[in-house]
Amino acid sequence: MVATTCQHLIAPSTLPSPVTGLSVLSYNVLLPNSQDGWWTYKMYLPPLSAEDEYISSWEYRRSLIKDRVGRVDADIVCLQEVSPLTFEDDFEFMTEHLGYDGVELFHKGRFRPATFWKKSRVELVGPAQHKDRTLLTTFRLLDTDTTRPNESVSSENWHVLNCHLQAGKQGGRRVRQIVEGQFLFTYGTRQKHNACFALGVSAAYKLAKKLKEKDPANLNLIVCGDFNGGEESGAVHYLEKGSVGPDFIEDGESVSSKEKCLPLPSPLMDVVLTDEVEWMNGCPPPTLVVPELISLIIDQGKIETCYINPQFSADTLDRFQRIYERFASVPSDGKSMQMGKLDVERWLTAINGRVGRGSEFRSAAKSMGWVEPSSELEGSGRESNKRESTTYKSTERSRIKIPEEGILSLEDFVGVYLEELRQGKFWGIAWDLATLGEPLPVENVFTERYDRMYCSKSLFPAAVLHFHCKNPCPNKSEPSDHLPIAASFTRL
């Protein structure tokens, strides 16, 4: 008889791994800045002093990640936001020091998920499935404990879906990512809906059928990762309620034109809420702990719709004007000054370390008259809403130049930061303001549960490991703006 009482643990702690079950850790590690992610230092507020700059380095951050992953000691580790440029070097410690000798890296994108596993504990069943920012791996448990013959390991498959859903005003896309690619399928009680099923979760269902599992609809499924949304998210609603349709509104827009239903007989279980314990007080621990900036930056009348039509508060606009006036040195009408090429370069160097990188540089260059050759576009910049908006090939970035006679008006200067705001870069705006002598009076912390872990009703969370931090992240003890989530599962 499988125990149905969940053990809630507080990190730091090792996660119990049932002999007949599986343990999983999910962690958005914040893009490694060994080569890419130069802007990582801007995630630290207030700006780090020269003495403390080392804590934003990848070497320091990597050591914290290594210690945490090693202590948890899960069978499977699902990471989000790894860089393909330096992946092998960045996470060499996973194999060399922690024993994760199995790995699958998502095959495209700048911010990628990656799944690690211990071959001594599980074996991969078939090739991994790569969807839109979701990575599906299927495993079979290996019998590693010969001292407990009464607890034989089942030959059933375990499906793990590692997700890093799109950030920003992209509720519809997040639903498509977890639902990914629609197709009609009729099953059981859902026949009357002629339901539109998804490849994200349904990829596991389809694979279970392909592998001829006894009961594909009752498969062993674990879905985890960074959902870039909380209770208001259509993707979360889809997993927890079993469907999402046109009437679900996120950021002022419907997330789907049609009803989308899970290809399973029941919704998934949020592992954190299993046997909810008293210390939660109805509020599970947040996984995103960052400075509360929105109320300081956004017009008070626009906070509820900050992704729909963002506008700066009067105080923020005053700060931008004072900064602009300090840099501006080119006479305009005899009464005021404007920012010329040298002024803009001094500003960009102050905020980005040098001219030629950063979305502020590209926006300013365009506002000053630089025309973008159509042949240089690489893509649609889907990653831009999270952090560094990179839509150009690295070999072509140098072609963008600040026009010699160009002028950046106050309106255009504010417009550069308005574009940052539209991309959700509150942290970058706050860092720039502080560095340029206009620090915001940050007093509060914004918390949300963006990182989640779910399981199908065929599984039970035997243990859940909770991580806590009261101070804004990242910081000296936290290498990412996200906290991990981990759980152990048994088969019911």
Shape: elongated
Instruction: State the secondary-structure class.
Output: alpha+beta
Task: Give the neighbour order of strands across the main sheet.
Answer: 1-23-24-2-3-5-4
Q: What is the residue-averaged pLDDT? A: 86
Report the sheet-strand fraction: 15-25%
Estimate the helix proportion, in percent.
10-25%
CA distance, first residue to last residue: 9 Å
Q: Give the number of DSSP strands.
A: 24
Largest sheet: 7 strands, mixed
Question: What would you report as the Rg, rounded to the nearest angstrom?
Answer: 24 Å
Query: Which residues sit in consecutive blocks of at least 5 with pLDDT less than 50?
Result: 146-150, 181-199, 376-397
Please work out how many helical segments DSSP would assign: 12
Give an account of the 3D structure.
By secondary structure, the chain is of the alpha+beta class. Helices cover 23% and strands 21% of the residues. Helix 4 runs parallel beside helix 5 (199-210), helix 4 runs parallel beside helix 6 and helix 10 packs across helix 11. It has a seven-stranded mixed beta sheet, with no helix packed on it. Strands 6, 7, 8, 9, 12, 17 and 22 form a seven-stranded mixed beta sheet that branches. The longest helix has 15 residues, at 58-72. It has helices at residues 58-72, 87-90, 92-96, 171-179, 199-210, 234-241, 294-297, 314-327, 341-352, 359-367, 410-422, 426-435; strands at residues 7-10, 22-28, 76-82, 102-105, 112-117, 122-124, 129-130, 134-141, 157-164, 183-184, 196-197, 220-226, 243-244, 249-250, 253-254, 260-261, 269-270, 288-291, 330-331, 337-338, 445-448, 451-455, 459-466, 485-491.
